[in-house]
Automatic annotation (TrEMBL):
Every Serpin domain range: 3-371
Cellular component terms per the entry's GO annotation: extracellular space
Family of this protein: Belongs to the serpin family.
GO molecular function: serine-type endopeptidase inhibitor activity
Species annotation: Ziziphus jujuba
InterPro entries reported in the protein's UniProt record: Serpin_CS, Serpin_dom, Serpin_fam, Serpin_sf, Serpin_sf_1, Serpin_sf_2
SUPFAM superfamilies: Serpins
Protein name according to UniProt: Serpin-ZX
PANTHER family linked: SERINE PROTEASE INHIBITOR, SERPIN, SERPIN DOMAIN-CONTAINING PROTEIN
Origin organism lineage: Eukaryota, Viridiplantae, Streptophyta, Embryophyta, Tracheophyta
Length: 375
């Protein structure tokens, strides 16, 4: 995220998605590589990873027996997929984990002769499972005759604000970029002096906007971390790097009748090849060790390693709600009056998090540096 911010690019990613696919890879590893996976994923065993992944998959999936929108709740979908070269059978233990825990049905494909067709197949699968939002997860030429196994997942979320913004009040306002320039951007607001969940902390303000939950027991919210300084995003990112728990801790927020309340509309996708970042963070052995021996039943399994990790995410925030990102809404009310009425005007680069409150799971994290980019 820091690299993207330094370039002035918007960014969005799903920690949930990355965690689950790496946990699946860890289940197929052994020895020092497995230890490194467990350390990186902050877990004690493959069994613990599988239990966590099963819980994450359940939280991010439709509730069984419910209708499509569960009387006003969010639309959710999370699926895993696996594509295996037809020359190599999966080990029965890994296949059992794949099917039972990760709900993925492995597909036999021909990487030797039809690698590019598999790229198209995986991309079509990702596009279908994300309702057309994630296109071309795998770049052209990313698979070849040496590919043995592809593991992937797709996460989709669409929710409506519990209290929608009034489109007639949306107006163009200045948004201040990190380079000192300004751009005119559509900003959303609600009626003046309507209570919002707000807090002010060391170096930043925090706003929480919930989404409709209907009869769904899951509660989604979107958090906006707004630096106090117009050029304070990089400092805020550094603060979070030193203390990652800042993003997921339970903040004491209160209903505040904000004097000025403006949030920009935005819509963008971001993609990155994550292996280099993971190596920098200490996850090196899976990319070179040959200790992924618990996946494939073959005399050549010692030569198996992770070559690349691709991740792509999409988000849209508008007056109705958000698509492909989790957020929740609570009806606002005024609990107290203050002599000095604060404001929340997101007119400069900020971070956001989309979180399921009941389980404390972050579905998406991102940064908006220019709401017009990729619009």
């Amino acid at each position: 995220m820091e690299k993207e911010a330094a370039k002035g690019s918007n960014f969005v990613a799903s920690p949930l998605s990355v965690h689950v696919v790496l946990s699946l890879a860890a289940a197929g590893s052994t020895s020092h590589t497995l230890k490194q996976f467990l350390h990186f994923l902050k877990s004690n065993s493959v069994s613990d990873l599988n239990i966590m992944s099963s819980m994450l998959i359940n939280v991010a999936s439709p509730i069984e027996g419910s209708d499509k929108n569960l009387a006003g709740g969010p639309l959710l979908s999370f699926v895993n997929g696996a594509w295996l070269d037809q020359r190599f059978p999966l080990k029965s233990t890994f296949q059992q984990i794949l099917k039972a825990t990760y709900k993925a049905e492995p597909k036999n494909v021909d990487f030797l002769n039809k690698a590019e067709e598999v790229v198209q197949e995986v991309n079509l699968w990702a596009e279908t499972e994300t309702k057309g939002l994630i296109k071309q997860l795998l770049p052209t030429g990313s698979l070849d005759k040496y590919t043995v196994l592809v593991l992937a997942n797709a996460l989709y979320f669409k929710g409506a604000w519990d209290q929608k913004f009034d489109p007639s009040m949306t107006q163009l306002r200045d948004f201040h970029l990190l380079n000192g320039q300004t751009v005119r951007v559509p900003f959303m607001t609600n009626q003046s002096f309507m209570g919002q969940l707000y807090g002010s902390f060391n170096g930043f303000k925090l706003l929480k906007i919930p989404y409709q939950s209907g009869q769904d027991p899951r509660k989604f919210s979107m958090y906006f971390f707004l630096p106090n300084e117009k050029d304070g995003l990089l400092s805020l990112i550094q603060k979070i790097k030193l203390n990652p728990g800042l993003l997921n801790q339970r903040y004491h927020l209160w209903y505040e009748d904000l004097a000025h309340f403006w949030i920009p509309k935005f819509k963008f996708s971001s993609e990155f090849e994550a292996s280099e970042t993971m190596k920098e963070m200490g996850l090196k052995l899976p990319f070179k060790s040959g200790e992924l021996t618990e996946m494939v039943d073959s005399p050549y399994s010692d030569d198996l390693f992770v070559s690349r990790v691709f991740h792509k995410s999409f988000i849209e925030v508008n007056e109705e709600g958000a698509e492909a990102s989790a957020s929740t809404a609570v009806k606002s009310q005024m609990l107290c009056a203050r002599i000095v009425t604060p404001s929340f005007v997101a007119d400069h680069p900020f971070l956001f998090v989309i979180k399921e409150e009941t389980h404390g799971i972050i579905f998406f994290i991102g940064a908006v540096l220019n709401p017009l980019l990729d619009a």
